Hints:
Blueprint: E1 2-7, E2 9-13, H1 14-19, H2 31-41, E3 47-50, H3 57-69, H4 86-101, H5 113-121, E4 125-130, H6 135-140, E5 149-153, E6 161-168, H7 177-192, H8 194-206, H9 221-234, H10 243-247, E7 251-254, H11 260-276, H12 282-301
Parallel strand pairs: 3-4, 6-7
Antiparallel strand pairs: 1-6, 2-4, 2-5
Helix pairs in contact: 3-4, 3-11, 4-11, 8-9, 11-12
Amino acid sequence: MPQNAYALGIYYNRKMFKAAGLNPDKPPTTWEEFRGYAKQLKSSSVAGFAETSTSNQGGWHFTNWMYTTGGDMQSSDGKQALFASDKGISVLQLLKQMRFTDQSMTKQQLFTQADTLQLLATNKVAMVVMAPDQLNTLKTQYQANLEDFGIGPMPQNGGNAALTGGNIFVFNPKASQDVIKAAFDYVIYSNFDLSVIEDSYAAQSASGQVVGAPTNILFMGDFQKKLDALNAKYANVPLQNYKPFTDAQLTLRAEPRNQTQKMYSALDSVVQSILTNASADPQKLLQQCAQQFQQVLDQSSGS
């Protein structure tokens, strides 16, 4: 039973955009614009962009960038590693050029999402890749003024897509029908009853938690319209700052299906090398990684 969903996008500092002569209502929508913005935003104390590369998050974000090119990480049956492609190489080349040619990225590397969020919150970086649900952490943990931040869609290079994920409820098929029905009824009531949702939004807003962060639409028709109305009623964030993200018409692509976290872990070292070694070879690194990960896929399928 789906509960919620997200898509990765670009968080950015609107004040830094203005100071650099960039329109904060128009974040970059292409790789070329993104690279140019990062160069324009960098200064002696601020990096234009920071990216994750550890705790499996280098591979996670690599997959997201791959989707923006229209590339694939695995075959549709999950049996073949496909990421050592020209499109995969182009992702690494973009990051390498930004890091070493443009010097628009942070010199320090090996970040997790928590690290890049802290850099954004403390005005040390202008742009990061993030999902909208991190707005709450930005506000509650760092007491950031959300008026200063915007969210835009992932910059594209031919793919018109971004990585999506979310949360679901799973019911044990071995449980009795009465237990499954009780569990299902509880999920429906606690998560999809509009009066319960309104009470939750009101309580969250009153306690200072973020209400109004953009989420992907899971539903259609009247129910979604009522959800949107409740979200707007109790919103305590600058909804207009997220309009570039919510108005974007991107295809949302799920994470690869087979041995996903092992694949992300393997790709972490590739992304780390690209971001720390100016002489790293994107093609060689990806080919070696794909060959090694293919063995994992072969073992999982018993071939």
